[in-house]
Amino acid sequence: MNGFEKRAEQLKARIRTVVLEMLQTCEPKNIRIADIAAEAGVSQVTIYNYFGSKEELIRDVFKQYYWGKVEEFERFVEGQPSFKQFVEYIILEDKEAFRKFTPAAIQEMMRSDEEISRDIDEIYRTKGLPLVTQLIEGYKQKGEISDKVSTTAILAYINMFNAQSRMLLEQAEQSGQGDVFFEEFIHLFFYGICGIEPSL
After folding, report:
1. Residue 3 CA to chain centroid, in angstroms?
2. Residues 168/181, Cβ–Cβ less than 8 Å
3. Do 37 and 50 touch, CB atoms closer than 8 A?
4. How many helices (H) and strands (E) does the chain have?
5. pLDDT higher for 25 or 73?
6. Are 133 and 155 in contact (CB under 8 A)?
7. What is the 3-state secondary structure (H, E, C) of 5-68?
8. Which residues contact 10 (CB under 8 A, 6 or more apart)?
9. Tens of pLDDT, residues 97-117
């Protein structure tokens, strides 16, 4: 990579960082190229030259963020985590995503941009799902998960909790009890509302 290309990549990275920060507080429709340019210290023309349009820029930022998360998850899996560590990781990642993007921003992007929706679905099907399935099969072999429950049912159970976690995390953050809620959420996942921990 020559000096010109290196500088171009640095400018792109700066622009992406600014957009990612904006998405923490703004819905995509309220973000303006002029504001991005001012915050990143570049011209609007530079942004259009690199990304084509505001929509393409936001799509690029969203995809890069999720691809980065997939790569992090691959490294996490390589560490051979326990099932409890895996569940904690999933919930913590959802908590981080909640802080990175407003729920409204995610909903708008997924609803209004079919390409983003297709890309995220493809990432899940080709990368995320196979990794999670591999982990679950390993946990069943180790006895960390009952072999009486199918992998499909376990995936549905995890997805059920994960689907509701954003709403519950939002309520917990508003109450100022986010950390306490996280511990309670983990407990509920493993032991239910009766709170009976199985003897090992």
Report:
1. 33
2. yes
3. no
4. 10, 0
5. 73
6. yes
7. HHHHHHHHHHHHHHHHHHCCCCCHHHCCHHHHHHHHCCCHHHHHHHHCCHHHHHHHHHHHHHHH
8. none
9. 766 776 666 667 777 778 877
Contacts of 136 (CB under 8 A, 6+ apart): 145, 151, 154, 155
Q: Which of 72, 66, 119 has its CA nearest to residue 97?
A: 66
Task: Tell me how far apart the alpha carbons of residues 168 and 149 are, in angstroms, rounded to a whole number.
Answer: 26
Q: Which residues fall within 8 angstroms of residue 122, CB to CB, at 6 or more apart?
A: none
Q: The tokens 């504001």 sit on which residue?
A: 35
DSSP label at residue 144? S
Classified as helix, coil or strand, 176 is coil
What global pTM score does this model have? Answer: 0.71
DSSP string for 149-163? S-HHHHHHHHHHHHH
Residue reference for tokens 């992998």: 151
Q: What is the pLDDT of residue 104?
A: 64
